[in-house]
Amino acid sequence: MRTILKANHVTKIYGKRQDPSLRNVSFKAAEGEFIGIMGASGSGKTTLLNILSTIDTPTSGEVWIHDISLRSLSSSGAADFRRDNLGFIFQEYFLLDSLTVFENIAVPLTLQRETPENIEKRIRDLAERFGIASQLNKYPGELSGGQRQRASAARAIVKKPEILFADEPTGALDSSSAAELLNALHEANTDLHTTILMVTHDAYAASFADRIFIFQDGCIIRELQKERASRRSFYELIVEETAKLDTDR
Amino acid sequence: MNILMNTFSMAFKNLRKNLSFYSLYLVSTAFVITVFFTFTSFSVNKIMLEKISVDGRVETMCNTISVFLIIFVVFYMSYSNRFFLRRRIKELGIYALLGYRKSAILSLLAFENILVCSGAYILGILAGGFAHKGIVSLISRLLRLGIDNSEILFWDLAAVSKTALFVCAVVFVLIFSNGHFLKKTPLMNLVRFEKSAEKKMKFHKLPALLGFIMILGGYILALDILHGGSSVWIKAGFYQTGFAAMLLIVCGTTLFIASCLPYIMEQSKKQRRKFYTDVKIITTPNFIYRIRSNARTLIMLTLLSAAALTVSGVMALTLYYPIAAMSRIAPSEIEFRIEDSRQTDEVKQILKKHISDTRGVTLIRTDIYKVTSDSENLPPEYNAGTLGNGENNEDILREAGFECIPHSQYTRLLEVLGKQSVSGQAGSLSDNECILIKYLPDADSKSEQGNRYVLQSGNTKKTVTVKAVSMDNAISFANSIGTLVLSDSLYAEISQNQVPSASIVSLNGKALEDNEELYQALSEYLKGSPYLQGHSHRINELLYMNSSTFLLIGFLVILFFIAVGSILYFNNISAVMDSRADYEILWKIGYGEKRLKQIIRKQVRTFFCIPFVLGFLDCIFAAIVYKTGLMQNILGSSLRQYVPVMIAVSLAAIIYAVYYFLTVRACYKTVFPAF
Question: DSSP string covering B269-311, please?
């Protein structure tokens, strides 16, 4: 499959700190791939996600998305790039409190100047798929955590981004809400061929991915491939590997 | 004691470490103390008061204004204190979790307030001293009071101690207010202080519609005053109707802001093409959200802004109108009646004595001949000044009749008065034509043009037709009302049958302007004659009599504008701070800096526009009512007369614009360091 994202020797050092948050990280992601990024707190997962999604810039190294070097983008160019190609889901949902769920999901589409008819159709279709069709006219404050996160995922997916970045999307959810969200992401990945990069601590969430990078001290120390394994056996492998990591430390 | 010392040192460290956060509080507090000190210094300045206050009116006004000032400062400081408290709720929650009692937190806040207010007091006194000296020097120069500026103290001890006492009182109010806030806020709210959860709220059509109708009704009622005698203002009474109109507008404004505006915005969402745009989809719901929690503040600001704009507009009109009316009340620089030609020569001697260069000075003598008429439809000017009310018949100053002047003299006078264009329009008159000079414009758009009057002078009767009606009188009203301009030959014919009823001397020229010495010399020579009229003299008299009143009201109005601007400033920054995370999300979604700035500008602009636009409309309608109902209509109805109101509104708009730009800049600074 075609490479959609390429990170080449990415290093990030904050301020005058000697220890880099990321050290020489390199990898490629193929179109339609679901990649999980795991590791202990402070291992550099979120830093990598921020750099890959143009929110932050690397100290050295290069990131390409579709052969476009992210370094070459100006601030407004990066904003346009995010608008046209990327979607985000955050642990804290980050829905706009003063907008209804419908309006929240519509925001990225208005940026793309979609017609009102198209906006309404796409939101209604997606809301059905994410199980939030009856919540569209409510405000985020009136929803449960799971519903909020599904609304947040719907907002990220509605504009059909080529790459979806998810930072601990199940971190604040109970197990059943987490499962619903992960299933929805999995569907988007398989049906819409959206490439997903998801940072998570949770082995169950990670088991939905095709490939997993395990981070430690800013480096990828292990790479796990799902290949033809079932989700259950992949989950067991992840638990085993992360347990090993804890023992090594 | 030890605990108090610890809390004090903690408060001091807090201020030092968060200097940029507290600097805004310090500057805003120092600013209001500067205003307070400047005003207090002014009101205790004996040298100044001796010069401008003759009857104790200024002292009374100072006392009234100081009450408003105290209310303003206390309100403003409570508002900004609450604003900064809101920003620190999470921090206070952490103190509470660490085991600080509420009394300890209150002491911490109290020490911080004492430190900030002490700093602001020193800054305010320093800046206020200079401001006071500057204002006194400016007034002295404007009113030619001849105050020696070196006699004015920078820091008057009485003002310094009064301000210190006041600041202490304000600190107590703030401590009490903070104590009340901490007492009623449960620990849970301190620890988990977040934006209150949004809930769907319905805006009903009825109150929305009622708000709009009430405002419209108030404005229609205000405009009804233009209907003259048939107006409700005359039939039901001026003050009753005024109160009803004000009540309609105040209630209408309240409903309009609280219900109508959010209802309109809610409805505007249905226009999908307009609503589904990158900026509107954010700003429209945000407006509805903010209006819900800020409606009370916005209503208060709108009413404050309406009051300030109305007072400033009416004040500008009150100052301007009598001065503009002088061009009719006393058109010539100096004008008086003489009894014989000898007096003219003596006046010329007085002129030579008080003017170094008499070139350019014109002296025109006009003999007025009085004629009577028994025609129908005589103008009101014919009988003006003849109506005594029973017991005061001895006060009748004038007999009914037309006062005739020749056309050539009329045009000559207009020319020296600089009204060449009017004299050109006057054209020529035949013997059966005349120009009627009106005192007040005709009500109900009736005109005397075309009316025929039979003029009787001795045994001679002449019929003249009114060729034109003019408001451009060349002779003051003290010397002639009901002036009729006749052709030179008809005037000559009338003058043969009688002696003039009055001989008027009109003096004009640059050298006479503002020449008070000459005016006093002529007044002495004419033994204080009521027929002596001076254009510049009357204007100077008006300025001298009213300037202190206008100055103090102006001070109060500026204070109101500053209050509105500052509250809008804090309110907008507070809203932007609360939604900083929202801007970060939008940025991540793909909103560029330009678009985010557009959203910020639009949100701030809306909140600045509502009080200003509604206040502006109130001001315009109030000015119309004031001018029509309470001012004599000497200058006729022309939109030009509202220019001073527009200037006052423009000055207010400049103050608002400055606040708007400062607010937008502060909002950018608040939002953009976040990402």
Answer: TT-HHHHSSTTHHHHHHHHHHHHHHHHHHHHHHHHHHHHHHHH
